[in-house]
Amino acid sequence: MNKNAVYLLLLKKLEVDLDVLQRAAQTAYEASTDKENIAENKYDTLGLEASYLATGQARRVEEIRQALKNCQAMTQAPYDTAQGIQVGDLIRLEAVNGNEQWVFLAPDAAGLKLIQDDQTITVITPRAPLGAALLRKQPDDDVQINVGGTVQTFTVCDAY
């Protein structure tokens, strides 16, 4: 698996998401300020609802813009065995039941799903329990996290 290709895919996905959301936010803003949406009585809330939508989308635009900025600023370096897993690393994990998963440890954009070489890669951050548990780990190390009172164990198979 090519870590640099995954990183570029992450940046591209954030750029596309930002563009789509900016257009949606602009549309919602225009709807909220359209003279046809001025309330005619106290039950006419179309303009108010459009305003709430525009506000929420503007916040989301800013979140994605910040995530893109943080990910662009992330240094891309090869996996360093002396430091163990760090932000910017691509990791292959195996659960105790044998299920395999790929994660990309990034400074932001948690939860984003990427597809590379027919594999789904989940973006996680050090703020997530799994991300925090992975920091400084090496291949063949086990990590445990507690999710809803259930302990989940993973083995680090590879780190790139």
From TrEMBL:
The keyword Protein biosynthesis applies. Keywords: Elongation factor, Protein biosynthesis. GO terms for molecular function: translation elongation factor activity. InterPro entries: GreA/GreB_C_sf. This is Transcription elongation factor GreAB. It comes from the Bacteria.
